[in-house]
Amino acid sequence: MATVDITAETFEETIEKNEIVIVDFWAEWCGPCKSFAPVYEEVSNESEYENIVFGKIDTEAQQELAAHFQIRSIPTLMIFREQVVLFSQPGMLTNPQLKEVIGKVQELDMATVHAEIAKQQDAAE
């Protein structure tokens, strides 16, 4: 699957309707973003990741989303699984690094993750 542009209007639906969503926060003027784009596109087109949404958010056009996620440096990569942010890191990744992170996200036992979140929420109340 090729990358898709995500906007404030499509963000929530994209996260809710897909098990895994990887988001690249970028900007046209950003040199490292331009260097990372081909790596991101290449991985997004691999058949083993056909059930993953690879989204791109232009931080200039979608300033409210960038502000909501406190994006301070670009590119920043975020990975959501079952509507939970499991990975958020500024900077470029190489092809093998990106694949390694995706593999770790896929291996996670989400029942355990959701139980831990619930436990933290109960403790905060």
Automatic annotation (TrEMBL):
Q: Which UniProt keywords apply?
A: Disulfide bond, Electron transport, Redox-active center, Transport
GO function terms (MF aspect):
protein-disulfide reductase activity
Matches recorded under CDD domains: TRX_family
Residues covered by the Thioredoxin domain: 1-107
Q: GO CC: one term?
A: cytosol
Where does the entry annotate site (Contributes to redox potential value)?
31-32
Gene3D superfamilies, alphabetized: Glutaredoxin (3.40.30.10)
Write down a Pfam family by its short name.
Thioredoxin
Which protein family is named in the record? Answer: Belongs to the thioredoxin family.
Q: What is this protein called?
A: Thioredoxin
The gene it comes from is: trxA
